[in-house]
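// run 5 | inverse folding | seed 20
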């Protein structure tokens, strides 16, 4: 049986894929073994192609957890789409260039010796519903 966190992640990926499809992108879900990429999306003319990592919170939270390599997983054509769910209502989407995540993400040592890597919602707010970033060539982000 899949863990609740896995189900939340899968739900976020498929909701994001549906949202992109509604916006007339051609979208493909990657295999679970594609490190750092959940979706590939391109415009109808195949001029702008994006790799996308989706991070989802089941409830609105103050941050999203990141992979430990978030500072290295950056490219002009790679974006994060952060999703905050609201039950059956439409989620909040934040479309953030990976370079901004690499610059503004944070790593925090916990008392247990573990390190948490996160991106704060206050940093994401300026990217709320910024689907237009995917309409521009990747080098112009």
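// decoded
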């Amino acid at each position: 049986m899949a863990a609740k966190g896995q189900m939340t992640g899968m739900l976020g990926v498929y909701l994001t894929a549906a949202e992109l499809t509604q916006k007339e992108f051609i979208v493909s879900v990657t295999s679970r073994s594609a490190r750092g990429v959940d979706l590939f999306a391109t415009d109808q003319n195949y001029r702008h192609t994006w790799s996308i990592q989706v991070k989802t919170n089941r409830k609105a939270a103050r941050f999203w957890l990141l992979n430990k390599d978030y500072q290295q997983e950056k490219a002009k054509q790679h974006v994060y789409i952060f999703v905050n769910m609201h039950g059956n209502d439409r989620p909040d989407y934040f479309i953030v260039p990976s370079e901004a995540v690499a610059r503004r993400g944070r790593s925090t040592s916990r008392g247990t010796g573990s390190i948490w890597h996160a991106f704060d919602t206050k940093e994401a707010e300026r990217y709320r519903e910024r689907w237009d970033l995917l309409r521009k060539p990747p080098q112009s982000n």
